[in-house]
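INFO  loader      accepted 1 record
INFO  loader      residues=425
INFO  predictor   begin
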Amino acid sequence: MPENQNAQTYLEDIEIETPSPYGEVLNLVRKYGVDNKFIDFEILDFKTECKIVGEKSPRMLAQSKLSVFDDDKFYVEKVESLKQIYRVKFYDLRRAKPIVLPSIAINANKNLTKILATVSQNADTVYFKEFDKKLINFIYKKLIKVGILVGIRNKTMLEEVAKIYSVLRVKEFIDKDYTFIVTAGVNVNPSADDALVFYYKNKNKSTDENDKVDYANRGYLLGVTENELIFEYVKLREGANGRDVRGNLLPTQKPKVTITKMPEHTENIYSKEGEEGIKFYSKKAGYVQEEKGVFDIKDELDVNEISFKPTGSVDTGLDTNVTLNVKEKDLTKDAIGTGMTVEANEVNVDGNVAANAVVKANKVVIGGQTHAKALIEAKDAKIAVHIGSFDGEYVEIDRLEGGKVKAKKAVIKSAIGGEIIAESV
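INFO  predictor   done
INFO  writer      dumping tokens
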């Protein structure tokens, strides 16, 4: 019943059992004519109604029995529905003794499977005996307002509140911000459709050393070593449902079969089947070739030229046993174009190497000339006309025309000019 003092209407303390305390506030306003800004409540107790899968009637659980939901499997698979009923005491704020609590922020993740609280550092909060209970009550009210279950899967919160309570009792202030998990559900473990994963394609570097897109490097040839994992068929994987902190089931999607046919391959590729899928490996070093849906490992390739438009840069690696033959012989053209990078075990170039091109190989043969801004790196090299730069172990040059040579041994048949640094010339 309300009381009237000095023409003001006050609400007497009243206990109510309700599934919706905030809804009851509106009922009290209508019934007693007290402004809702003066009405607050304290949670005295609550019960949890739980319908278990396969049981006809729901169970009514006291606070002391809620640890049953700590088990993820039980919480997700055995629970059909959850409801809570709260016994609360409504009171008039104008008659209540003020209680100073620190600032408390509540945050949730997108799927409502984790609720975090941050209790802010505070020098004005005074220790009192029931501080921990009042702090928990404040948090619970915040949760109830947005339909989140209280008292369930909240062991971490109880431990953290006890810690804050102890700090306040000893230091007489809250020394720092405390962030902790209030309650947590179970995240969905997503299903995965079956898939083909082509690992060798991922070896292509689409960006340069400055993380800029390298349009010249398009993966024209992709080298592999012996027994390297090339691609894999990954079987579909069943996921698992989750459940949020409101007690709602979070269903996972059913996986779908998307691959109806395994990749065909030659005897140069072998496979191993396991529980998670089928893995395909190279029997020898080389590069992967796919022709009419059949995969193979090749170790030699003839191309007319290597330039930006038809091939882009070619990088098969030095340890893949790939031999690259560049057939362009016209000395008015470039066999390896401007700015191209070529890397293979062996590179045979019938014609010229253009400006800013880089050739890296264990063995190199260049039948034309190297541009002054071209770089050749090799263990063993033969160059007809060298105007660019060479760095390696052994090089044989028919005519050196102002080029630079750095090698352990250099054989120069004729020279118009140049710079040579070698242990043996």
